[in-house]
Design goal:
Elements: E1 2-3, E2 14-16, H1 20-28, E3 36-39, H2 42-45, E4 52-54, H3 61-69, H4 71-85, H5 90-110, E5 122-128, H6 142-145, E6 152-158, H7 172-179, H8 181-193, E7 203-208, H9 212-223, E8 228-230, H10 250-264, H11 270-300, E9 306-311, H12 317-329, E10 333-336, E11 362-365, H13 368-375, E12 383-386, H14 391-394, E13 407-412, H15 430-443, E14 452-455, H16 470-474, E15 480-483, E16 496-502, H17 507-513, E17 518-522, H18 531-540, E18 542-545, H19 551-559, H20 563-571, H21 574-584, H22 592-603, H23 607-611
Parallel strand pairs: 1-6, 2-3, 2-5, 3-4, 5-6, 7-8, 7-9, 9-10, 10-11, 11-12, 13-14, 13-16, 14-15, 16-17, 17-18
Helix pairs in contact: 4-5, 4-10, 5-11, 5-12, 8-9, 9-22, 10-11, 11-12, 18-21
């Protein structure tokens, strides 16, 4: 039951809530001061209120490892059942497997419930707010899981003064410098060609989404005579008659889900939870079928033309709908790598179901290790070709011309909370991640003789209603300053001399390619490096493992060195760094777009027509 007007909350002794603002409102509406408040929010748990408890405290480190480490196998099993049934396509099976990854977020929260939660009075304060580009994802799925409890109530609270940060303005000069002239050319031409949306060229490249390497490749194809057309689905198509989920293997899929649920969820909730999860899979498939209807007329216009599709991050219902239609009429599909992660992160296989190579005919990878990891995917469909990293990445070194007025050190935080939206990649809860970040600030950065800028991660989709409590500590530390504007680090590299970061994410690639001293904190339990990547990066960068007994002292002592000395030590690693970059970042030092384009029109576009355009 949902209550929309102001209720009397005096009868509730147990409350689920992730908002400080909402809980303050609840106290004003007679919520007992001794009521137990269960929350996942770091900001809530930072409070001194002893009645605010961590709802995820049942997750020990070993249990988190087991849960996170088996997500990929769970998806593989369901994918295999779907493919084995023989009645659905590769794209449909990928859709189901991708939904399988997403539903683990619900399962994770369901595991925090107990038998009493199915019968006892419980209040869920659900917050209303936009949350960002993907809408409101601020609420845990308690209403999905506990709606059969007759004493479970939901009250909606509208957040006040809610603000989603916008992209900060960056000077046109800097944007052009970082993006490069080819990106400007790409933007201009695609804008002009958008006026010819209904015109079918004899040969053309369709664009569905974009990233840096994809733009480089598209421009090279454009230079050789292939018009670029950004495509969008029809909005006015009635999708009510779209196929619905009719998996012949539905019972088997449900059985696999039930077995996994039983590993982590209290017995009386297993069936309920399993059925919630399979409904989420149904929604994903229904979305895919509806999108196919919206795209069908558009894509089939390009039958019997010399056309290829370039796409970004293709394993989602929208892209899979387009790719399935392209496959039916023989249009080759190509995607481009959009970040260095899968080749360096030890926990990245959790999301191997969304690797580009699973959906497209060709995956353009930055380096040999990325290709190797892609080719090992259980869900693989396509071919991987190494083209090198994007030209925008390669320009980072040229973007470090400034030498005066620079801040000595910047810590580029990659602490993006999971909330109810992100993938795991970690064996820590969001609260534990926040405390780890706090320790870095207080035990290391606050105790070195240099000024340090703390750059928070630019969040597009808010995970929690309240401000990250870690950021409050920075305001009281003399040598620290906070940069919390929504600007990507690539635009700021000329402002700092030494770059510090942690966790094996794509952020690292932008820092490495700037060729400034990079200190990498390898977090054992939070998106750590693979053993192989750790060995290479320890030679090419300054690497510190956070599980060593003297970690804080070693890192603090290193960062206390004169900046000139750190820079000198950095250049002594140059030969090892070149080996590291070639293996884990970029196989080539230039011309990635040209290399990729030549491969595409050699392999995927009619040879006779190629010769007339070059």
């Amino acid at each position: 039951m949902t209550i929309n007007n102001t209720p009397n909350l005096s009868i509730y002794k147990k409350v689920f809530c992730d908002s400080k603002q909402a809980i303050a409102w609840a106290y004003k509406n007679k919520l007992p001061k001794d009521a137990i408040i269960l929350s996942s929010s770091p900001a809530m748990l930072w409070e001194s209120n002893p009645n605010i408890k961590h709802v995820e405290c049942r997750w020990t480190l070993s249990e988190m490892k087991r849960f996170q480490g088996t997500i990929n196998k769970f998806a593989e099993n369901i994918f295999d059942v779907c493919i084995g049934a023989g009645d659905i396509s590769h794209e449909e099976a990928l859709c189901v497997a991708q939904a399988t990854i997403k539903i683990n977020r619900i399962l994770f929260k369901a595991a925090c419930l107990n038998e009493g939660d199915l019968i006892n009075p419980i209040l869920f304060i659900r917050v209303e707010g936009s949350g960002g580009a993907k809408g409101n994802n601020l609420n845990s799925p308690w209403d999905l899981l506990l709606d059969s409890n007759p004493n479970f109530k939901v009250v909606n609270y509208a957040l006040e003064d809610e603000s989603v940060s916008c992209v900060e303005n960056i000077s046109l000069k800097k944007r052009v410098y970082v993006a490069g002239i080819r990106t400007i050319y790409y933007r201009s031409v695609t804008k002009i060609l958008s006026f010819f949306q209904n015109y079918i060229f004899r040969k053309q490249i369709l664009i569905l989404g974009e990233n840096e390497l994809l733009i480089d490749t598209a421009v090279r194809l454009l230079i050789h005579g292939f018009p670029l057309k950004q495509i969008k689905p029809f909005d006015n198509i009635d999708t009510s008659d779209a196929d619905s989920c009719t998996l012949n293997c539905r019972d088997t899929v449900l059985d696999i889900i039930t077995r996994r649920t039983a590993e982590f969820v209290t017995p009386c909730l297993v069936n309920k939870c399993a059925n919630v999860l399979i409904r989420e899979i149904d929604k994903q498939l229904d979305s895919y079928y509806g999108l196919r209807l919206r795209w069908e007329t558009i894509i089939k216009k390009y039958a019997d033309t010399n056309t290829a599709l370039l796409t970004n991050a293709p394993v989602n219902p929208n892209s899979l709908a387009v790719i399935s239609l392209c496959r039916e009429i023989g249009i080759p599909t190509i995607s481009a790598q959009h970040g260095v992660s899968q080749e360096i992160c030890a926990t990245h296989s959790e999301v191997s179901v969304v690797y580009d190579i699973n959906a497209v005919d060709c995956f353009l990878s930055y380096n040999a290790k990325s290709k190797e990891v892609a080719n090992s995917s259980h869900f693989i469909r396509g071919y991987s070709f190494v083209s090198g990293i994007s030209e925008r990445h390669l320009r980072m070194k040229k973007n470090t011309y400034k030498t005066v007025g620079m801040v000595p050190i910047i810590y580029v935080s990659t602490n993006l909370y999971k909330g109810n939206l992100g993938w795991f990649g970690t064996w820590l809860t969001d609260y534990d991640r926040a405390r780890n970040e706090q320790r870095l600030i207080n035990s290391i950065f606050a105790k070195i003789p240099h000024n340090v800028c703390y750059k928070s991660y630019p969040v597009d989709n808010i995970r929690y209603p309240d401000k990250d409590p870690v950021l409050h500590d920075i305001e009281s530390i003399e040598n620290l300053s906070l940069f919390d504007k929504k600007i990507d680090m690539r635009y700021l590299l000329d402002e700092y001399r030494v770059l510090v970061t942690s966790m094996a994410t794509s952020t690292l690639s932008w820092l490495v390619m700037a060729d400034k001293p990079v200190i990498f904190i390898n977090s054992k339990n939070n998106m750590p490096l693979t053993v192989e990547a750790r060995n290479a990066l320890s030679k090419g960068l300054f690497l510190f493992d956070d599980d060593e007994d003297n970690f804080s002292e070693r890192l603090r002592n290193f960062l206390s060195k004169p900046i000139d000395e750190i820079e000198h030590l950095w250049y002594q690693k140059e030969s090892d760094r070149k080996i590291m970059i070639k293996r884990y970042f970029s196989a080539y030092e230039n011309n990635s777009g040209k290399i990729a384009a030549e491969f595409i029109y050699d392999k995927y576009i009619t040879p006779q027509q190629i010769k007339t355009t070059i």
